[in-house]
Design a protein that fits this description.
single chain, five-stranded mixed sheet, binds fe (ii) ion, alpha+beta, Protocatechuate 3,4-Dioxygenase, subunit A
Amino acid sequence: MTDWQPPNRWPPLPEGVQPAVPIDGYPNTWTFTPASPPYSRPLTRTEATGPLELWRKLPCGDNNLAVLAPGKIALGQFIRISGRILGEDGRPVPGAIVELWQANTAGRYAHSHDDSKAPVDPHFLGHGRVFSDETGGYTFFTIRPGAYPVPVKDTWWRPPHVHFSVVGPSSLSRLVTQMYFPGDPLNDWDRILNSIHNPTARMRLVARQLHPAEVGDAFLAYQFDIVLRGALATPEA
Ligand SMILES: [Fe+2]
């Protein structure tokens, strides 16, 4: 027997650092937002710490969304997105499953649910999955996504953005969020980004562009660190 008890409750987050949902004009947030608070159930040790080596169960390796094969090159502006997955104390989280999905350069997803008039790019993968290394680091090579309109009556446009999911260190620890590009004018009008009322927390979803002198001329590069919990946590989105 052991007296070890897995934590099942974290200190409440400060006001305004998570999206205020549901979001007006974004139907998914109405259907996905529970009407009642979640039922709290104590976690077991297995649920809090495992399964170990998630990357063995969720095949990783698609970190290049833009060049599928010689001659199969996505249209768009080549970019690299890299960063670190960190715990609330700043320690790296190695072995986390980092998934990314995004629209192509025309603002269309490679998904059957996207029936917009924007063209599909057959050479763009649209999603990738890697696991974080010993320093918590991850890297994707992709293209800058296009903006797209939200199909509601009073339409508005999503700015270029990249969806992220991070699972780890256990399968019950998952953060789903979005990365935005610095300086895009549509950021100011994005209802999802602006549903995070705290401006400092909102900026945690905006990547940092690296100076081209550090990167070279093959692609533009962005750094996007993801903090899983605590006062500096990356907001869900
Ligand atoms: Fe999206």
